[in-house]
Amino acid sequence: MSEETMQCSSCRTAIPGDSDFCPLCGTLAQTEGVVCVTHQDHEALGVCVICSEPYCSDCLMKIKGQYLCARHSMVEVIREWARAYETTDTTDAQMIQGALEQNGFRVVTQNTSSVAYVGAQLGETGFQRSVSKRPVKIFVPADRFDEAVAFLTEWQKGTPVDDGV
Q1: Cα distance between the two ends of the chain
Q2: For 90-134, how does the pLDDT look when each residue is reduced to its tens digit (9 = 90+)?
Q3: How far apart, in whole angstroms, are the C-alpha atoms of residue 12 and residue 88?
Q4: DSSP per residue over 80-104, as a string?
Q5: Distance, CA of 71 to CA of 74 (rounded, Å)
Q6: Most buried of 2, 65, 149, 151, CB within 10 angstroms?
Q7: CA-wise closest residue to 79 among 92, 63, 60, 102
Q8: Which of 67, 72, 37 is nearest to 55 (CA)?
Q9: pLDDT, tens digit, for every residue of 30-49?
Q10: What is the pLDDT of residue 120?
Q11: What does the pLDDT average to over 153-161?
Q12: Strand partners, 66
């Protein structure tokens, strides 16, 4: 039995029929009756793809086809993933990835250098990648970005984090 879907009016992505907004771009399925969280007298245009808060056209920014609020406008978002961490130290990246995964976050890592693949074929090590300063980006689902950043902040301080176990 398949769930009924509809098509986002902005990005044309198939979304569940009962969705209030497109999780990919933030376009509201229906704007009537939805108001901006900042300007209560303005109708909302869409929601921030990270915090899911509704905002008006004065408050939202459309960056690479996705709505972001002012607080999240500098976050790199690729489809439904938001960059939670970036480092040139591959050991650090592996530790961060492991900590996030161990605490229930789905994680995708990206090495932004096309040379990394060639280097790996030639025996490049994590140390060499670190020395050459090619960043490793760690992405989490956009709707869990704030939670992941808060977790990492506490984790890096060495503060005990309630991992829900």
Answers
A1: 34
A2: 889 999 999 999 999 999 998 855 544 444 444 445 555 445 578
A3: 36
A4: TEEEEEEES-HHHHHHHHHHHHHTT
A5: 8
A6: 151
A7: 63
A8: 37
A9: 878 899 999 999 999 999 99
A10: 46
A11: 79
A12: 63
The order of strands in the sheet holding 77-78 is: 77-78, 81-87, 136-141, 108-111
Residues contacting residue 100 through CB under 8 Å, at least 6 positions apart = 84, 107, 138, 140, 148, 151, 152
Cα–Cα distances (Å) from 10 to 32, 43, 56, in that order, read 17, 17, 16
Tokens 């869409």, residue located? 46
Question: Strand pairing of 14-16 and 46-47?
Answer: unpaired
The predicted model scores a pTM of: 0.79
Q: Which residue has the tokens 């989490």?
A: 140
Pair of tokens at residue 91: 């050991």
CA–CA distance, 145 with 53 (Å, rounded to integer): 14
Hey, what are 57's tokens? Answer: 């056209």
Average pLDDT, integer, range 15-42: 91
Helices (H), the chain: 90-102, 115-121, 126-131, 145-157
